[in-house]
Amino acid sequence: MLRESVRRHVSALHHLARRIDAATPADRDRTVDALRSLAILGVVLGHWMVTALVADSGTVRAVSPLHFLPQLTPVSWVFQTLAVFFLVGGQVAAQSYAAARARGRSYRRWLGARVSRLFRPVAAVLVVWGVVAAALLASGIRLETVHTLGKLVLSPLWFLLVFTALTAATPLVARLHPLWPLAVVLHVDLVRFGLGGPGRLGWINVAAGWLVPFCLGAAWARGGLRDRTTGWVLLVGGAAVTAGLVVWGGYPASMVGVPGAAVSNLNPPTLAVVTFGLAQCGAALLLIGPLRRALRRPALWAAVALVNLSAMTIFLWHQTAMMAVTATGLLAGDPLPGLHTLPDGAGWVLERLGWLPVFVVALGVCWAAFHPYEQGRRKRRGGGRGIRRRPPALVGEYPPASVVEGPACLR
Predict the structure, then answer these.
(1) Residue 116: how many other CB atoms lie within 10 Å
(2) Where are the domains of the chain?
(3) Longest pairwise C-alpha distance within the chain
(4) pTM of the model
């Protein structure tokens, strides 16, 4: 009986995958969705692997294994995927703006629709965590602990602000050559690190640094970056320059922030993280061909489609899922290895890997509760009441516009 039940479930999943595949427009570039999915999964795994919550003297503080285990630095090269998001975001923004102009839609209407799709699910996070923070403080939890938890949830939202600003500037930057913002980043770093300029000058790079892959994405939307030579130049050139900046320029090797480090490559962005992003963009462009062939398989495409349909929910709630598991584990009394212990050894890494499936389950619970805020309400046709909304992927319009932005970030 168990075997028959498993067989039925597998058959249902295959049927669902075929329906999603059939509902996808033939002219949709599935590789864009695949790159976004890979990037968002990298962000989630990166946060779960480089963030540990440790109870210390009645408070909870966040620590990073990269501080204790610098040999794990290559992990940051794999999971720091911001450049890929801005590459895809620039491609989608430029393409959608061109389509909006062709249909006669105004800039204001186009931008308003895109901004609302980004920030509608954010409201749910702000409300829930506002209530949680108030409840924690009222119950006697120390302010330092509440600040730590709130920062983990809210600090990544800077990505949405930067992404929105670049999206709003799409008509101005869609044809901007990426070398111009790259030159700005170079000169800012020269002033900051070479001439002893003020550190606050680096915040110019928040816009200029991420404008580089965004402009590459816009060029991709115009039909550029199609040859593999461009991909290899970006990959090899970006990697070589980044290595040179780390070895001889004194830049940190980690591509994410490490608590206690004198300089962060991300806060604000440095030339090293931008050139590293160019290498990532080159790798992404080289993956387009293999991904396009692989995504002809309905099962793989269905998985990519479902991740994209939940992109905002995954991004906004994955830290909450980790913290919920950590808080629940405190009920056990003694600190649980890999969950509450200090990440100061290789054993912690193996222990944390064992907790990842539990984090996934917790994220699934968050998804069930908050995914509707991502999709929003669909207008009912024909004035009927009680019309049941079917999944967008199954009604011939996958994916809905609400998922084409695909947010993510590392702090």
Answers:
(1) 11
(2) 29-50+60-297
(3) 74
(4) 0.85
